[in-house]
Amino acid sequence: MDSLEQLACWAFNCDRAQLYTGDYEADEENIKLFHEALDSYTRGIPVQYITGEAEFMGFDFDVNPSVLIPRPETEILVERSLALIEREGMTEPFILDLGTGSGAIAVSLTKLSPSCKIIASDVSEEALEVGRENAAANGVSDRIQFILSDFFERIPEKEKFDLVISNPPYIPSEDYDSLPLEVRSEPRIALDGGLKGLGFYGKIISESAKRLKDGGYLILEIGYGQTAAIKSLIESAGSYRDVKIIKDYNDIDRVVFAKRH
Ligand code: GLN
Q1: Which atom of ligand 1 is closest in space to residue 192's alpha carbon?
Q2: Which atom of ligand 1 is nearest to the CA of 73?
Q3: What's the confidence (pLDDT) of residue 1?
Q4: Which of 93, 143, 179, 189 fits a disulfide with 183 by CB distance 3.0 to 4.6 angstroms?
């Protein structure tokens, strides 16, 4: 569905087929909603913030401007993580999701890997609220613990993880102002990765080395052109091997896997 169809279906409470066969109710309230939605859309508000909904890995997520809208590329991270869990025969993987936002990664992993347990952290209380709601709506609250934490800051030290996963902010600060208007309505805190977009990786990579079990994996989403820098951060941490890069649908390096040894 294109964006306008999505807005119309949302405002008239119908599906795409009904929209085109005229099989929907459009009272004054629906029409007003549609006009307001169009107005927001032309001002650069993303469709998902207008409708309050986004789809990720086939599941429904509530979103609002406190959280990044889940991206299709991030589904690659989830799919490859699931494949890894399977391949390594991890029976009850214990996973940390740093900067969970809407909870898209944590919730979909929990849905698709029925024995995993997850700690999902975020530095924003508003984001955690959205994450908690999404976990509840998808029926997985009992397997995700949400913690308000600036990366590792408040993650209990005793916890050792099979997987540490993160889609940190990675847009270079110097590029932020030229992002499309829609992207700039998302939380800057979830996008702006500092100088060259690399500001968070050093800390995540070195700290994860202490929090991963031997043989556990660090799994990171990365941005355009960051592969060499991130590989060298991983190498200089001295605790990882088997570094693997996965490309996205546009043939851009998007996900990095590294095994803790
Ligand atoms: N993929 C997002 C974008 O290009 C960025 C997400 C992030 O910084 N983690 O807008």
Answers
A1: 8
A2: 1
A3: 84
A4: 179
Ligand 1 nearest-atom number relative to CA 68: 6
Tell me which architecture the domain covering 65-260 has in CATH.
3-Layer(aba) Sandwich (3.40)
Which residues of the chain are in CATH 3.40.50.150 domains?
65-260
User: Best of 68, 181, 196, 198 to mutate for ligand 1, by most ligand atoms within 8 A of CB?
Assistant: 68
CA of 221 to the centre of ligand 1 (A): 9
Q: What is the mean pLDDT of each run of 10 residues along the chain (261 residues)?
A: 94 96 94 97 97 98 98 98 97 97 98 97 98 98 98 96 98 98 97 98 97 98 98 97 97 98 92
CA 55 – ligand 1 centroid, Å: 16
> Residues near ligand 1 with C-beta < 6 Å?
71, 167-171, 183, 191, 221
| SS3 of residue 192 by DSSP | strand
Listed as own residue / partner, the contacts of 134-138 with beta carbons closer than 8 Å and 24 or more positions apart are 134/61, 134/62, 134/102, 134/103, 134/104, 134/107, 135/103, 135/106, 135/107, 135/110, 137/60, 137/62, 138/59, 138/60, 138/107, 138/110, 138/111
